[in-house]
What we know:
Residues 1-18 form the signal peptide. It contains six helices and 24 strands. The chain is α+β, with helices and mostly antiparallel strands.
Amino acid sequence: MELLVLIVLAACTTAVASAGVTSPYRRSLMGVPPMPFDADVFRPPPGYNAPEQVHITQGDLTGRAMTISWVTPHHPGSNMVRYGLSPTNLTHATESTAVRRYTFGPSYQSPYIHHATISGLDYNTTYHYALGFGYTNVRSFSFRTPPAPGPDARIKFGLIGDLGQTAHSNDTLAHYEANGGDAVLFIGDLCYADDHPNHDNRRWDSWARFVERSVAFQPWIWTAGNHEIDFAPQIGETTPFKPFRNRYPTPFRSSKSTQPFWYSVKMGPAHVIVLSSYSAYGKYTPQWAWLQAELARVDRSITPWLIICVHSPWYNTNEYHYMEGETMRVQFERWVVDAKADLVLAGHVHSYERSHRVSNVAYDIANGNATPAFNASAPVYVTIGDGGNMEGIAKSFRTPQPDYSAFREASFGHATLEIMNRTHAYFEWHRNQDGVKVVADKAWFTNRYWLPTDTN
Ligand SMILES: [Fe+2]
């Protein structure tokens, strides 16, 4: 009996002792401040009035044009872009369109913003380009055009959202660079300037210097997020998207869109449709009308992979921003399922989540069939708002985990999508805490048009 008491006492002591142990490892849950303005990743290039914040995006519908953007800090400087197939023989030249500046709030004046579209490029070809003529530092970069639209072309996309400019953001970008990709589908929320007093637009400048190391060399396809709205009537700023619209052009006209916030591009085997959660999308609105027409233009025999980018997720099991995307889902999900879209990418929620193929299209307000159901024509929904911005991680997942949620984790990271051919694409998610080559989640997707298996 005494022995039993001793054993029980020992067990209790052990239990009490172990309950007090705190694991030394903690995933960063709190927001961290942005890197300071004097951080090395924000350092301007040397040389008076040197071009900086260089970034490129596809300049037409199919990839035979590239739009090159940069700013000059002190003077408009040269509008010239020289480019060619060899870094030492830049045989062609074009000029940026009207140089622009904008003001924001009580004191911000932007640098001189240049946009130049070079066109008539060959597919799948490396071009070199140079900027900053007339000053001491002419800066040189290069990019590769995508393969021609075609069912068995290959392309590897980086998938990044809600990046910001913290040390976590820097990890995310570094890991993406190490894993490699041909282009980035950026799912909105770039620099988070609006989290600072008066939407401190110096953060638009520092962010653009930070990401130049990637986006000067490969096109990033831009989706607008809520942090791009910059609606601030208290400081006299009543035009939504003012900094974003001035700085980040999109090729919207080439896909018959009327605004830069919804448009499409074809890149090799992919038809990428970008939607705006923060522009009107109700019935009869310009975005609604455009999407209806655009889905009819998709030709899966040429671009088998139909990918939709939208900032606010339609399926999300996190408390954070829960159901914010619901009205857009109700508006567009039927079309997306009927179109057999492969993938819907969203950001906004600062965590990672991948869904099974589900739809709610059976539901109407009267029949009560409100549970998402497996649907082989439905896309996989991926939330990739885990770029690492200053607002921190969204860790409050709803419990129990709904059946349609295949994988979810509150960590910062990025994903890649490698389209192999018309039938198969390989998806990976990487969390920043791991080494760059560690895969934390992965899936093979089969094409919804060419091989609509009951997978995912
Ligand atoms: Fe957002």
